[in-house]
Amino acid sequence: MFKTALAAGIDTCFANPGTTEMAMVATLDRVDGMRAVLTMFEGVASGAADGFWRASGRPALGMFHLGPGFANALANNHNARRGLSPIINLVGDQTTWHLPADAPLSSDTQKVATWAGWHRYVTSPNDISADTAAAICAATTGPRGPATLVIPADVTWEQAPDDITSVAIGTLAAPDPDKIGAAANLLHQPGAALIVGGSWLTAEMAHDATAIAAATGCKVFSYRVPNAEIGQGIPHIADIPYFPEQATQVLASVETAVLLGTPEPITFFGYPDVPSETLPPGARRFDLGGPAADTAKALVALVEHLGAQRHATGPVECPEMPTGALDVGSLGAAVVAGLPDDAIVVQEGITSAAGLRSYSVAAPPHRTFSPTGGAIGGGLPLAVGAACASPGRRIVSFQADGSSMYTIQSLWTMAREQLDVTVVLCNNQRYAILEVELLRAGIEVPGPKAASLTSLADPALDFTSIAAGMGVPSTRATTADAFAAAYSRANSEPGPHLIEAML
Ligand SMILES: Cc1ncc(C[n+]2csc(CCOP(=O)(O)OP(=O)(O)O)c2C)c(N)n1
Ligand SMILES: [Mg+2]
User: Is 373 in the pocket of ligand 1 (CB under 6 A)?
Assistant: First the structure.
């Protein structure tokens, strides 16, 4: 199994094992080149595998302990599915002949795997290489996403045959020339918009999309792209906003939407009297390729079909390093002003990310990983995986406080692996977005119970102590100046560092 994965270029396993995985764990020591990374919660492993893929374009393995262990991994597995990130989940299960005894840890592991996406129950050591190859193929062929092998312990005890099934990383769907021609015609029409989804938006793609807009007069939007190159010299492609009213407003004049790499944009939630769709009801929808599409190739094909010209993008004024009060605006400006070259910013800042988002176009070119499936607790694990995949590159984990607590154990893995991560912990002592949602629901003054379910203040979380307790050096910043100093030090010293930004 591990040799099959290695032969496909998969060399990292994020794990939280138990008794049923002991043979797998022992085997890792006999497979040179396969890195084993312990996480202290399964959701850290699944999120880290997602981050590893986003940073490197190579999938990683996750190793989990039966149904309950894998259930702990499901929220970030869901995020990976929504972000079109392949992960190969290896889930140990009870010894086959022990299942009827209904031991305490037995459960319907396959049912848990059903929820996770493509899955297969491995029945024989003779099949394990072929089954691993099938999982890799399923995960990496568009539309990409997690794939799971459920492996009973007795299958892993037996010696598997030496010969392995070779498998390459799968591909995305190539653009259909007829559809490219039809889309190019539609994009010339008044009120046309190109909406680009998919799993990444590189600088090249942003240049291509801008060239298409210039050649046709269409508008261009990106829609929930989890992995985007942003910064100086890279044209800015506007995102479709999160809240339905704003999304509907920016799309109000769209008469024809060409959808690439995504179904049509919809609202995150259903609110009373708000439609699910954010495009105008009468707008024409043209499907240029859904989540399986190779969006980069489709953009190149459109550029070539149109004879569109790519242009250099002028400089954007970079914010000064701020001084004085620390708030969402000055924090975002400071993160951008001091961002190291070629960094990856993992953004799960929720309401605290507003400043960062608006300044990031002025940053040195970098990559931003954004949340995908809406299950919070993805940010710190993504940072773990991104750092494991990119030695020498600084990862800035821009993290909201409430969301951090779902997978705070990520800090321990950062310390154990000495990962170059600067965690910017935005401590606003509340679930601020839920206060906004309460307001949206018409509750101007929440009652004491509602207020207690959105406040994190009593007792206040002390993130510098939490970090220190997990082996991560930490600093608390209450002013922009203090933040700037801590941020520059954290980015220049190897290993992880947490800065608690008091907002
Ligand atoms: C797994 C999961 N559980 C619960 C939620 C509901 N939820 C959405 S945002 C949020 C609170 C976010 O608070 P925080 O991370 O502190 O960010 P802030 O709103 O303060 O900026 C919660 C609980 C969710 N999206 N996912
Ligand atoms: Mg908060």
Answer: no
pLDDT tens column, 136-194: 999 999 999 999 999 999 999 999 999 999 999 999 999 999 999 999 999 999 999 99
Q: Whose atoms come closest to the Cα of 402: which ligand?
A: 1
407 lines ligand 1 (CB under 6 A): no
All structural domains of the chain: 2-157 (3.40.50.970), 177-306 (3.40.50.1220), 328-502 (3.40.50.970)
Contact 158, 129 (CB under 8 A): no
Tokens of 22: 């002991």
> What's the whole-model pTM score?
0.98
Which residue CA neighbors atom 26 of ligand 1 most closely? 375
Atom of ligand 1 minimally distant from the CA of 399:
15
User: Best substitution site from 357, 405, 433, 438 to test ligand 1's pocket, by max atoms within 8 Å of Cβ?
Assistant: 433
Q: For atom 21 of ligand 1, which residue has the closest CA?
A: 351
Give the angle subtended at the CA of 425 by the CAs of 421 and 429, to the nearest 5°: 165
Question: Cβ neighbours of residue 378 under 8 Å, at least 6 residues apart?
Answer: 47, 50, 75, 76, 79, 348, 371, 372, 403, 407
Q: What is the pLDDT of residues 247-286, one digit of tens each?
A: 999 999 999 999 999 999 999 999 999 999 999 999 999 9
